[in-house]
Input
Amino acid sequence: MKNNFFDRFKPKENKFFPLMSDMAQVILAASDLIIECVQVTTHAEAVEYYKQIKEQERKADSIQNQIFEELNETFITPFDREDINHLSATMDDVTDLINSCAKRIMLYSPKEMPEAAARLAMFVRESAGFLVQAIDELGVLKKSTVNIKEYCEQLGVIEKKADDVYEHFLIDLFENETDAIEVIKLKDILHELERATDAAEAVGKIIKTMIVKYS
Output
C-alpha cells in the first residue's frame, strides 16, 4: 500500500517541469493571438480575439495554482520553492499583460492601430519562443547552462528593441495625433505590449539567478 507521507520525500521533478512547460506553451499561444488581435479592423473581431486570449490567461492562472499546490504538498523540489513560485508567477504575468492588451483593444476600439503595435506584438511572440526554449532547458540546468544562458540573453535583447519601438511610437504619437482620446487609447494599449516584453525579460533574469545558484 502506498504511503503518502513518505511519498512526499521523494524528488518531484516530473511534477514541476511539465507544468512550467505547459505555462510556456500558454504564453506562446497567447502571443500568437495578440499578433492577430492588434490587426483587427472591427469591434466584433476584437471581441473574438479577446475571448480567445482570455481563455489562455485562465489556463495560465490554473497552471499557476497547480504549481502553488504542488509546492505546498511536496517536501523535496528540484529548486527552492521561492524560485519556482517566483518563476511561475512572473511567467503568468506575461500572459496577464497580453490579455490586458487585448482587453484594451476590445474596450477602446481605437480608430486605427499604429504599425508599432504589430512590431511590439511580434517582439512579444519572439520572447515567447525563447521562453519555451529556456523552460525546456530547466531539467538539465544543473548539468549544462550553455543554451539556457543564450535564451535568457535574447529575452533581454528583445526587451531593449521593444523599448526603442515604444519610445519612438510615443514621440510620433504626441507629435502627430491631434485627438487626445486616441492618444490615451493607443498609449495605453501599446504600453501593455511593451510591459509584456519586460515581464518576459524578468523571467530570464530569474532563470539567470537560478543558474548562479544551482549550476
